[in-house]
Amino acid sequence: MIKIQNLNKYYGDVQILKNVDMEISKGEIFGIIGHSGAGKSTLLRCINGLEDYRDGSLTVEGQEVKDLTEKEIRELRKNLGMIFQHFSLLERKTVFENVALPLECFKYSKAEIEKRVMNLLELVGLADKRDAKPRNLSGGQKQRVAIARALALEPKVLLCDEATSALDPNTTKSILALLQDINEKMNITIIVVTHQMEVVKQICTKVAVMEGGRVLEIENTEDLFLNNTAGLKALMGDEQIVLPEGTNIKIIFPKEIANQNIITNMARTLDFDFNISYGKLEKFREDVLGSLIITVKDHYANAVKRYLDEKNIKWEEIKNDK
Ligand SMILES: Nc1ncnc2c1ncn2[C@@H]1O[C@H](COP(=O)(O)OP(=O)(O)OP(=O)(O)O)[C@@H](O)[C@H]1O
Question: Total domain count for the chain?
Answer without folding.
Answer: 2
